[in-house]
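Hey, I'm writing a tutorial for new members on how sequence and structure tokens pair up, and I'd like a real worked example in the thread rather than a made-up one. If someone can provide the structure for the chain below, I'll link this post from the tutorial.
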Amino acid sequence: MVVRRPVAPAEHRSVISSEVAERIREWHDAAARAAARDNGSEQTFAYLGKKLTVPPGVHRITGVSHLLGEAVLAEVSDADRVLDVGTGSGVNAILAASRGARVVAVDSIPHALDAARHNAERSGMSARINVLESDHFGSVVGQFDVIIYESQVRLGAPNDRFTFDDVIDDAQHITVFIHDARRHLIEVSGRILFFVGPAPGQATLIELAKEEGFAASIVAQEAFIRDGQSVDYFVIRATPL
């Protein structure tokens, strides 16, 4: 039996360096400027055998997105009930449904929900995916075999500066997520797939998972290289102890 404990604010600090935090800030600034040049246009992506549209303001498919997508395809079976938290354009929900799973896909952004429904229909998976408006677990009912979570640092325009502290706050965000996810995960056989970048980093996430009663390990890893610099991205698989 796992004893639940209150999640204290600022309980963990990330091991990410201020240099890496500044590098990430610069990359996000560049991405925001590129998005502005698109004049708010919808983007279309070919991704792991699926064709998806992503509207402005919804997280785009990136050069490392395939790490989580491939992990979903390897993990999910037709016997599973899957929860995709922060579904965005619905990409990971669609991949899970393509394995025969029943999927609940949640997001708090209305145009993300519209995109997820459109992409599910376009992919022929709408019968297997229930798209719901929810802030994480707020409107979620029931338990699931697999929970998918791609944490994102959501930023505004380039002038909306963010600090080192803003980046490492993601560790506390994930702590709360792990704590709340437990009641929606089937005991013993349940699994969580996390996509995590340099903030808070894989070591911190594995530590947080252990403290909440999970065993966690790396199932995929890739370095993202830009401007001669690199940061690592990971998929972490967590299971109840």
